[in-house]
Amino acid sequence: MTDRLPDSPASRTDVDIATGVLVGIHGGSVADAIDELFRTAKQHRVSLFELSRTLITVAEGRDVERSSTLDAVYAVWGSALGRRGADATFGVVTDTAAV
């Protein structure tokens, strides 16, 4: 989907792409999507860049190694992304908004 290398460091480009993913999911503004990324990274104490990279990878339907960043992506956006195998791979993932 993108021209970045799978093992390349997460970057500002990933933040821009992840912002687009969130706009696609929610239909909101770019500013709202950026705020959501920052807020989620801070709340879950993960890197903004790694959060962005992981969100993109999950949205693309590719496998991601389990991490606190992946847990944050599934907790916040799992239902919108169809959880793409999260339940089968890591056990039941609870959507915090539904609890």
What does this structure look like?
This protein is an all-alpha fold and 99 residues long. 58% of the residues lie in helices and 0% in strands. The protein contains 5 helices and no strands. It has helices spanning 12-26, 30-44, 48-59, 68-77, 86-90. Helix 3 packs across helix 4 (68-77). It is globular. Mean pLDDT is 80; it is low at 85-99.
Brief synopsis:
With 99 residues, this protein is an all-alpha fold. It contains 5 helices and no strands.
Give the SSE map.
Blueprint (H helix, E strand, L loop, with lengths): L11 H15 L3 H15 L3 H12 L8 H10 L8 H5 L9
Unreliable spans: 85-99
Strand-pairing-aware structural class = mainly alpha
Number of helices: 5
- Principal-axes shape call: globular
State the helical fraction.
55-70%
H/E element sequence: HHHHH
Rg is 13 Å
Number of β-strand runs: 0
Features:
99 residues, mainly alpha, 5 helices, globular, disordered C terminus
